[in-house]
Design goal:
There is one protein chain. It is built from 15 helices and 10 strands. It is α+β, with helices and mostly antiparallel strands and 469 residues long. Strands 1, 2, 3, 4, 5, 6, 7, 8, 9 and 10 form a 10-stranded antiparallel β-sheet that branches. The structure holds protoporphyrin IX containing FE (HEM). Protoporphyrin IX containing FE binds next to strand 2, strand 3, strand 4 and helix 9.
């Protein structure tokens, strides 16, 4: 009975998205001096910090195949002397949407349909094309980079704008980039279909085998820096996660190297129960007024309290192992509290025993904000251009990459109704006329109609391509 009762309860909820994943331990070594920007101990010259990194696909469930057209998640946990710094990013420099309020819908659109229980290209493309800010990310996902050949062969990005502050409490805005030293390698649709038919764990196996043979994967870490003054005069919202910062203006600054060199001893204990959150920052690293990031600061801990329980930070892989003497986090009690629960120490703060005191020295510098607090409407923002980044990307692609993007787009959107195809063709055209013409042709649409629709605003286009109920 004991055995059966335990067996009945062995499966825990999977992550709401990024359910299928693989993790490994390693280290971050700092090779360059960025102390003028940040006082984070883990980012000072010659610092070496242990880390745990989990890679994932996004839309597929825990049993899904690895080689799917999808973005890849990368969640990094650095066990720094000041506590854990989690950088929870993806393999793309931008994201689909910029408003946290759209996030559940994005996932409902790319995951299973409530009626059929099946994945639906129609839902996927309908949602994506109704929000034109998705356009750059769609271009990336439909490009040759849409199916990476394993996790070792892709770049990693923090995507959001974060902040750094130095010993003098001076703040700059920053973005994180990690470039693969293994070189970029991708799969075509046909190669991926063959891989998935033979091995659903192809990306996890590739990582496992590389680490086991001592061929440790490495990424070079860079940051882009924008001063507060530059941000005030930037040509578009620098905190919009759907936009990139042009490298010419904000060059990549080399910081160090991340290496993965140890496979975990137990998948459930260390990978399935790993819990990452962008809210885990350390002194020297902070957030930004990116409202998408602000939403994420709440949601990860909330998801983990449900998925793993309220004491998820006591699970060994999640403990702040880099802090000498351990962490005093002030939490008490709760399900599965298995340590000493701080014994008889006071449970309130402030107290006269001098414990749990506030630490003003770890506070971020204050941020001056002005303007109205309101729901941001990109339609009212004259600096907003949802097609600029996608058009820029198209224009730097070589001919074979352009051809592959058009081919993949036409194949992916093939089962979708014509009204949605027109919406996407117009977006391609607005990004670059050549992109639009080639996509229109590949989708078998009428170019004259695309040109007519391209005269409309986004709101009018959405209306014109939405059948009346
Ligand atoms: C506001 C929008 C977002 C929301 C509400 C959200 C929510 C979530 C939730 C609930 C999970 C599961 C957490 C868990 O159970 O441990 C998750 C996982 C993840 N998210 Fe997000 N997410 C958002 C945007 C993003 C963005 C923009 C990125 C990349 C920059 C990202 C990267 C990831 C990754 C890598 C994981 C997997 C973490 C792991 O390996 O355990 N998410 N997200």
């Amino acid at each position: 009975m004991e055995k059966l009762a335990h067996f009945d309860r062995e499966v825990i909820p999977e992550r709401r998205m990024h359910a299928k994943g693989w993790g490994a331990y390693g280290k971050l070594t700092i090779t360059h001096d960025i102390s003028q920007y940040t006082k984070a101990k883990a980012l000072q010259p010659d610092a070496v910090t242990d880390c745990f990194v989990r890679f994932s696909t996004v839309a597929g469930e825990r049993g899904a195949a690895d080689a799917e057209r999808d973005i890849r998640g990368v969640a990094m946990k650095f066990y720094t002397p000041d506590g854990n710094w989690d950088l929870v990013g993806n393999n793309t420099p931008t994201f689909f949407i910029r408003d946290v309020h759209n996030f559940p819908d994005l996932n409902r659109a790319v995951k299973r349909d409530p009626y059929t229980g099946m994945r639906s290209a129609q839902n996927n493309w309908d949602f994506w094309t109704l929000l034109p800010e998705c356009f750059h990310q769609i271009t990336v996902v439909m490009s040759d980079r849409g199916i990476p050949d394993g996790f070792r062969h892709m770049h990693l990005f923090g995507e959001h704008t974060y902040s750094f502050y130095n010993e003098k409490n001076e703040r700059v805005w920053c973005k994180f980039h990690f470039k693969t030293q293994q070189g970029i390698k991708n799969l075509t649709n046909e190669e991926a279909a063959e891989k998935n038919a033979m091995d659903r764990e192809s990306a996890g196996r590739d990582l496992f085998e590389a680490i086991k043979r001592g061929d440790y994967p490495k990424w070079t870490m860079y940051v882009q820096i924008m001063t507060e003054d530059q941000a005030k005069h930037h040509y578009e919202n620098p905190f919009d996660i759907t936009k990139i910062w042009r490298h010419k203006k904000y060059p990549l600054i080399e910081v160090g190297e991340m290496e993965l060199n140890r496979w975990p001893e137990n998948y459930f204990a260390e990978v399935e129960q790993a819990a990452f959150t962008p809210a885990h920052v350390v002194p020297g690293i902070g957030f930004s007024p990116d409202k998408f990031l602000q939403g994420r600061l709440f949601v990860y801990g909330d998801a983990q309290r449900y998925r793993l329980g309220v004491n998820y930070n006591q699970i060994p892989v999640n403990q702040a192992k880099g802090v000498k003497g351990g962490v005093a986090d002030y939490h008490r009690d709760g399900a599965m509290r298995t340590d000493g629960n701080y014994g008889g120490a006071p449970a309130y703060s402030p107290n006269s025993a001098g414990v749990w005191s506030a630490q003003p020295d770890v506070m971020e510098p204050p941020l001056d904000i002005d303007g109205a607090m309101w729901r941001y409407d990109p339609e009212d923002d004259p600096t907003n251009d949802d097609f600029r980044a996608g058009g820029d990307l198209w224009r730097v692609m070589t001919e074979d990459k352009k051809e592959m993007l058009i081919h993949n787009t036409a194949a992916d959107i093939a089962p979708v109704t014509e009204n949605i195809k027109y919406r996407h063709a117009v977006h391609c055209y607005k990004a670059d006329p050549e992109y639009g013409e080639r996509a229109t042709k590949a989708m078998g649409l009428d170019m004259n109609k695309v040109l007519e629709l391209a005269k409309l605003t986004n709101k009018e286009l959405n209306k014109a391509t939405t059948p009346k109920a």
